[in-house]
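Usage example:
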Amino acid sequence: MLNPQHQFDFLKYRVDASDDKELLNELMTAYGKEVWNYAFSITRKWDLADDITQEVFIKVFRNMHAFRRDASVKTWLLTITRNTAIDFKRSAFLRKVTLMDAYEDYGHRQSAEKETLEKLATNELWKLVLKLPTKYREVMILFAHHQLSLKEIAQMLDVSEGTVKSRMFHARKKLATMKEANL
Amino acid sequence: MDDKELREHLARGPLAKNGFDEALRRRIHEQIDNPRRRARRLWVPMARLGGAMAVLFAVLAGAWLWQAQSSGDAVKENLKLDTTTQDATPAASAQTAMTTEPPRSAMLIGLRKDIPSRQTSTYRTVLVTPEDGELRVNASLEGIYMPYKLKFYRLDAVGDTRSQGSQMITSVPAGEALPVALATGPANRTNEKLLFAGNKYVSLLQTTTDADTGDSTSRVWVKDIEQLAPAIREKSVLAKDEPHYQLTELVHLSSTMSDEWTIARDKGHWVTKIPGRSDTPEQLLRNIALSSSIGPLLPTDVSSYDTLWLNWDDIRAKEPAAIDAFTSPTEDLLAVQTADAINISAYRMQESGMKPLSIQLEDGESVVMVQWAQDGYVNNWKTMLGQWIGTTNHN
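Running the assembly step on the lines above writes:
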């Protein structure tokens, strides 16, 4: 949901901060974890989440003037995170050389990542959510973890609220099926 | 599971371990701490005052807007801003305050001209300096003259001793003779194009063609200037083992490993691209142009200076047909590339104070190097490069 407090905090920092770096630091303290979590949720890869997070904050640093005061800082950052992840994915598809990462990975790296998830996942529900197909995983995480409203999610993904509702419905249904299968 | 339960179960992050740690924060700061790329260097004292006023105005206007508007199109607007403003380092109009001081910089431009029918390329270097109230071509030289350490190196394409139609890039300290041809093996023909020349590193597009089958593969490499020495080139072409730099050796990226990557021009900056391989150099050049850049800004040892002080709106206001642009470190020269010319001006001066210069580009010609000299180094470069004017490739 939109948080007016964030709004004012950002504006306050924008004026108070002696330089943009200080403001960046504040943003990283407040949202670094959220940005990284979102990048990881999209990619399911630790290294890639690091690189995307790095790129997001560099973009933010270079474009602080572009922040719209009528938006939430959180949705702004999450939108940049999503766009950056898409850019990474697009460039991964375009290149035909050997990569350590493509989003849908294979072989031993996939096994290693599964193992990481098994070991480090916060709880069973997260394990299941991270196994959802991208379009369902995305809405579920934005709604339940980042606590965005359906309207905000729709705006962020550039789809209708109805589409978000429908994806949420299918995400829940898939989660229930996966849960039953795990029992 | 209802909404409340879902949010409770997923309130914490996906992993028990925190991914955004101090190491990552440090890494981000390290990337940003590159002083030559920091946007704040833009702010001259007057601009700082103007900027503060602009921020104050924006805050007041923003607070009003925030109350007055719903957040309806905010995210979409952000997306637009995010993509458009990344095109150039932001610059306030105060930064283009006019002056009567002549520019303190000289511009060295390296150009490659492709001749598709022959799969070959030619190169030239142009030194532009401010002289007596005008911008002038002070030196125009065959080949690429790249500053490296305290001297210049000459890079150029040379043929092969078997006359198979190969064309490889090699380099020698300027003033020394380039070999007429490099010894190659009988199996392949090798054709190369220089894509980028910095202060130490270069990027090449290499096409190898099997002499028997005619099958060819084009790929890209990043090398340093010393790896282009004739003896090393001959050895590497014969051994089919090109010395090069992996992406992660030069660019801070932990997720992507690639031997075949390049440095390319994109939206006013030199960027990293991984275009893959193609059957022809033309196709690979297209892939480079179309592929997205990846990773953070290039470190300064790869691209020593790469700041655009004007935003694209200002650049296009000056030159609607602009496709690329460069500005000097002393913030006094602007070079705008169009489809057929590079137009250079002292953008803070009236035209009557410093006459601009237009360098016509030939068909198939593109920029592979831009270097700047400042103050006392301008005369050094004029003297050094002046002695090689009229030098052909191999003498």
